[in-house]
């Protein structure tokens, strides 16, 4: 089943000579429970595509469907509700709240959905249960990102969007975070869409979407996704 359908979507920033076609007539489908990579060089439109399909930004033209719902027709309030109910986000810089403990940071996600996961379950899954009383500055980058994953997943989103989630991490921490994402995707039947400029990381995905200069230039259905341990980092 297609969870996301993108029909002829474009987005332009700026005006006249400074105009940038960040997305140029993109059409694609994302299947439910899939692990999808948006791959391309810097400036190719990966983050813009992630932001428009997740309802963080609006496209200028075209349509985006979430299941059968045309989210491009949503008013702002409906978009906020859509994001709360169905989507989780992880960013390169973690975005934890510095003066809240790990547990409090994760609980922010919990309040967004009455039917949430148990705090102990998700912290055990991510091996951060022993860090619940600490503050973000007392954690390594990899630990902070695992807290951000717990915060995003505790409300049981249908789809998790990751923008260069391992971009600030070294190989060991980065692979550990990717390995958790792959495990959680399988365990909870999540759909994950992740942005990367890293060809090695993209090989963990089953569906690889390649972008260049705002255009979709190739799509690969990867029958043998690699594990985090198998990918080459350099
Ligand atoms: N808010 C904005 N205002 C103006 N131009 C923008 C804005 N956001 C993105 N762009 C431009 O749109 C194009 C696509 O940007 P985008 O961030 O989507 O690319 P990306 O592939 O994610 O790049 P990176 O890997 O460097 O993050 C770039 O040329 C960028 O400069």
From TrEMBL:
Keyword Nucleotide-binding: yes
Gene Ontology MF: a single term: ATP binding
Domain ABC transporter: 4-233
PROSITE patterns: ABC_TRANSPORTER_1, ABC_TRANSPORTER_2
Classification via Pfam families: ABC_tran
Entry-linked CDD domains: ABC_MJ0796_LolCDE_FtsE
Stored SUPFAM superfamilies: P-loop containing nucleoside triphosphate hydrolases (SSF52540)
Keywords for the protein's UniProt record, in alphabetical order: ATP-binding, Nucleotide-binding, Transport
Domain of life: Bacteria
SMART domains: AAA (SM00382)
UniProt-listed InterPro entries: AAA+_ATPase, ABC_transporter-like_ATP-bd, ABC_transporter-like_CS, MacB-like_ATP-bd, P-loop_NTPase
Family under the similarity heading: Belongs to the ABC transporter superfamily.
Protein's name in the database: ABC transporter ATP-binding protein
């Amino acid at each position: 089943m297609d969870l996301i359908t993108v029909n002829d979507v474009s987005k332009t920033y700026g005006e006249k000579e400074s105009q940038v076609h960040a997305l140029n007539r993109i059409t694609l489908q994302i299947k439910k429970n899939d692990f999808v990579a948006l791959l391309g060089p810097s400036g190719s439109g990966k983050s813009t595509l992630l932001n428009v399909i997740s309802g963080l930004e609006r496209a200028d033209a075209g349509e985006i469907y979430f299941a059968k719902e045309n989210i491009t027709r949503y008013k702002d309030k409906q978009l906020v509700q859509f994001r709360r109910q169905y989507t989780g986000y992880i960013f390169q810089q973690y975005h934890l709240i510095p003066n809240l403990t790990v547990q409090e940071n994760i609980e922010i996600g919990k309040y967004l959905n009455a039917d949430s996961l148990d705090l102990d379950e998700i912290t055990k899954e991510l091996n951060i249960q022993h860090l619940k009383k600490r503050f973000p500055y007392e954690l390594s980058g990899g630990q902070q990102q695992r807290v951000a994953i717990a915060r995003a997943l505790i409300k049981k989103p249908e789809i998790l969007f990751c923008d260069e989630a391992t971009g600030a991490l070294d190989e060991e921490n980065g692979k550990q975070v990717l390995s958790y994402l792959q495990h959680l995707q399988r365990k909870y039947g999540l759909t994950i869409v992740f942005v990367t400029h890293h060809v090695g990381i993209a090989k963990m995905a089953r569906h690889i979407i390649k972008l260049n200069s705002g255009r979709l230039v190739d799509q690969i259905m990867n029958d043998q996704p690699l594990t985090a341990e198998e990918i080459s980092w350099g």
